[in-house]
Amino acid sequence: xxxxxxxxxMKRRDFLKVGVAGGAxxxxxxxxxxxxxxEIKKEARGVSAIFVNLPGGPSHMDTFDxxxxxxxxxxxxxxxxxxxxxxxxxxxxLPKLAQCMDKFAILRGVTHTLxxxxxxxxxxxxxxxxxxxxxYPGYGAVVSKETEHHNPMDLPAFVAIPNNTQQRPGFLGVxxxxxxxxxxxxxxxxxxxxxxxxxxxxxxAEVEKRQGLLRDLxxxxxxxxxDSQLLDGLDRFSQQAHSIITSKRxxxxxxxxxxxxAFAEPFGEGPFGLSCLLATRLLETGVxxxxxxxxxxxxxxxxxxxxxxxxxxxxxxxxxFDTGLSSLLxxxxxxxxLESTAVFVTGEFGRTPKINSRSAEGGRDHYPRCMFMLQxxxxxxxxxxxxxxxxxxxxxxxxxxxxxxxxxxxxxxIGIDPTKEYQTAIGRPITIxxxxxxxxxxxx
Length: 444
Prior knowledge:
By secondary structure, this protein is of the alpha/beta class. It is 31% helix and 12% strand. The longest helix is centred in the middle third of the chain and has 19 residues, at 204-222.
């Protein structure tokens, strides 16, 4: 997947351990943590999750919150179309999502105040407003921890396609970091994930030898830093690495060629669509949490061309998003997984209602005061547009929702109590979501 740019030291023991692990095709970015079964509510139907990250900040006014009656300097160039739910309209460039509107809910009037990409991403990937003194864990790390004792040893609990630098484990430690695939699937080609496939002639026997060396290093340095989270993560990693590398089930989970042509065809051949296809397969096999990325939404210039048609040899963002997400929701439903999978879609903020003049066509700038988020699956009742913005989509019409509220609702849907407390390495009690309140309308 194309990497999009937005507008805005290791100790000797750690280095040695990374070097050994890297030799087996498994690197620090790929540390595998198990996933713990903590306090899963029996009434919750969502037991796995997909987080779709839209870095750059998609325009709410050109996607899910159009204002066709606003003045011309606000409303933009796209028209609304009807969905399969009477009374709900979305952008004309999302026709496939319009036909499965009954499977997801739109949250309009989500609002916050962080207009910088990095801070906004950290906020929406954790559900907590960033603090300089503490790194909160992302959703995937929390889900991994809370499902830890129920996960199979030969599958990673948390997979990022191709990676997600914002879904960090934070104070929970590296053992809850994701397995990054490092790439997206390509049509008609076997998909190889470093750390799952043995590459470059490496044999299982050689992996076992290197695991032995890693165990020796663990013993050598354990007395030096007994409380190191990195050491703990590497211990768990070394326990699980051999199981994953040699597991037929793990290799099969990443092989999208095993899907029937009829099932795979709606996902298309683009990287985001094929990533969505891979996500359905991973969850069906037993992976608990998958993150997906579709970047490029920082449309300060040429907003409508970049959204609909694309430029610089890149396809339009909305057609990619429309194909991938609609196929993901329909595919999960077809596999019988939608009722047990919570889906969360968001960027870090919306974009300015008033069109700028940075290019001949114009664009929209960063705007956290009003944005959309999507929720689906589990106990979420699809076919709803919850909340609203004012006549120019500049502010929530009423109180609006915070990212904290949406995070609390997401955890509630999975069966995790958002008010549960963890402790940092120094014993500081931290609530999973500090200030969020569950949005009950999502589930009614």
